Amino acid sequence: QVKAIEFLSPNPFFVCSDSSGGLHLWAAYSTEAVLLHRFVANHPIGLPYTPSVVQLSWLPHHNWLYAADSSGTVTVYKLSFLGGSKRATLLGDVLTSTTFMTGV
């Protein structure tokens, strides 16, 4: 089940989250959508459940994706492969992240 979606303008990509804690990075070309990468979002250790990402926000100036999950954690992902490529290729580690606890 899709929980949130964010278009990564001006790039031809979008990210969606699912109810099992996954994030999915897609390329949206004129004739097709291609799944580029699926990963499990960063979550606090020790929770008795896997939180789902419920809100996504894109900051294009820095290629940062903010992901807020149902446990109250906000994670910032640096999408480092987005700079000017016409078709994305995944080489090595795509994402680095920093997690902030909101105290909720």
At a glance:
The protein is mainly β. It is built from no helices and eight strands.
Structural overview:
By secondary structure, the protein is mostly beta strands. It has strands at 2-7, 13-18, 22-28, 33-40, 53-59, 64-69, 73-79, 95-101. Strand 2 and strand 3 (22-28) form a beta hairpin. The relative contact order is 0.21.
N-to-C span: 24 Å
The low-confidence runs, each spanning 5 or more residues with pLDDT under 50, are: 82-94
| Range of helix content | under 10%
Total strands: the figure is 8
Order of helices and strands: EEEEEEEE
Task: Report strand %.
Answer: over 45%
List keywords for this structure.
4-stranded antiparallel beta sheet
How are the secondary structure elements laid out?
Blueprint: E1 2-7, E2 13-18, E3 22-28, E4 33-40, E5 53-59, E6 64-69, E7 73-79, E8 95-101
Antiparallel strand pairs: 1-2, 2-3, 3-4, 5-6, 6-7, 7-8
